[in-house]
Design brief:
There is one protein chain. Helix content is about 45%, strand content about 10%. With about 425 residues, it is of the alpha/beta class. It has 2 domains: about 210 residues, Alpha-Beta Complex (Spore Coat Polysaccharide Biosynthesis Protein SpsA, Chain A); about 120 residues, no CATH class.
């Protein structure tokens, strides 16, 4: 009997000025031990760039990439031209979000409901059994709306790039770990190169909402509200470590700003602010009767300009379980981030102090090994191996949470029930 997984995978790949990275990615695809896949790629840039001297070289490089891929042998490959003159983006409809939507919508038109869309970026590599690991994972979780795939940035020869990516990864993993420990349903890291989902789920949420950046975050949040997500996969993706401005915010821009000494958009938030979130979410069932005052409730009142942010939910959801689910959907991943930023604005402690407090509070027995000289630890000046040691420790702790997964939002029924 053949028990091997059989879902067909559609690879969704946006590309802009990445001819130097594509051979590595294409090589990874050619070596996959799972062959039931087809690649859709969108080569893209704004059409107006053809008339901008400083951008024209990107357009020309894109056209060269387009022609190369159109002739490429060895992979079943569909190439979407949004780069040649007259075919590029116009107006506000441009950026990686539109490229992802374009390629995913093209897949949606021909794919079956049970087929899988695997989102990738051109700067990403992975091992030879990556596709088979995803097929097996979805076969084991047929009701999952998505897998938020683990990631790990490989270090390079550029010390500045390494320091920036380690600082950024520590931020992301610290953020995720704190959401896990307070039981947040939004404990995922959204990377466009590290997510996969069935076509039926893509259709159920109305596809991807295009944004110039951050589309992966909003997309996974929509899926999370719809149903069960899987947060662990035995195989990781390995995005490149590079300074990149092809998106407006995310890893590349964070590294660029960080290399200039500006990490204000990606701080190490005090663990106590996450505790304040938990105080509120733990009260959601009590809010079914009456909203209680908490820092997060006060924030929502101010942000949303609502006297009681949960009153309308009480009127519309007469069952406590569905009411709690609605509360989580209102106080979602975006609202959580906005709350943390509002609290951080008045915080005088630095990132290192927040990280030390977190590690000493939750991992006191391991602190000496992870951060031998905690008082001297510095993102700016500590040796790279010390930052990498912290990064790898957080990876390990994050994976311990990921393998457990959160099956669904409180009160949430499986899709179709």
């Amino acid at each position: 009997m053949n028990n091997k997984p059989t879902p067909f995978l559609y690879i969704a790949l946006p590309v802009i000025n990445e001819a130097d990275l594509l051979p590595g990615l294409l090589g990874c695809m050619l070596r996959q031990d799972y062959r039931r896949f087809r690649v859709f790629t969108c080569i893209n840039q704004p059409d107006e760039w053809w008339e901008i001297p400083g951008k024209r070289h990107i357009c020309e490089a894109n056209v060269e990439t387009l022609r190369t891929l159109e002739k490429y042998q060895g992979l079943e490959l569909t190439v979407i031209d949004r780069c040649t003159p007259g075919n590029g983006w116009n107006g506000k409809k441009h950026g990686v979000g539109w490229a992802r939507k374009t390629v995913m919508d093209a897949i949606d038109k021909i794919a079956g409901a049970q087929d899988i869309i695997v989102s990738l970026d051109a700067d990403t590599t992975f091992r030879d059994n990556y596709f088979s690991s995803l097929a097996e994972n979805f076969s084991a979780h047929p009701d999952a709306v998505a897998i938020a795939i683990p990631y790990f940035h490989q270090l390079v020869e550029d010390e500045a790039a390494n320091r920036a990516i380690l600082r950024y990864e520590i931020y992301m993993r610290y953020y995720s770990l704190n959401l896990w420990r307070i039981g947040s349903p939004y404990s995922f890291t959204a990377l466009g190169s590290a997510m996969a989902f069935p076509v039926w789920a893509y259709r159920a949420i109305g596809g991807m909402t295009p944004k110039m950046s951050g589309e992966d975050f909003y997309f996974l949040q929509k899926l999370r509200k719809y149903g069960k997500m899987v947060f662990y996969n035995p195989e990781k993706v390995y995005p490149a470590t590079r300074f990149s401005d092809r998106v407006y915010f995310g890893t590349g821009p964070a590294m660029i700003k960080g290399n200039q000494g500006d990490w204000t958009s990606y701080p190490i938030y005090s663990m106590h602010y996450f505790d304040e979130i938990r105080v509120t979410t733990d009260l959601f069932r009590e809010f079914f009767r009456k909203t209680k005052a908490t820092p997060a409730v006060s924030f929502l009142i101010k942000l949303l300009k609502e006297e009681d942010p949960f009153q309308l939910l009480r009127e519309n959801f007469k069952d406590p379980s569905t009411f709690v689910r609605a509360c989580h959907e209102k106080f979602d991943g975006l609202r959580i981030l906005q709350f943390l930023k509002s609290r951080q604005s008045n915080d005088s402690n630095n990132d290192e102090e927040h990280l030390r407090e977190f590690l000493s509070w939750f991992y006191p027995d391991e602190l000496k090994e992870v951060m031998p000289d905690a008082a001297r630890f510095s993102f700016a000046s500590s040796p790279l191996y010390e930052l990498d040691r912290v990064r790898k420790f957080l990876v390990k702790k994050e994976e311990e949470y990921q393998v457990t997964s959160i099956p669904s939002l409180p009160g949430q029924l499986p899709p179709g029930v």
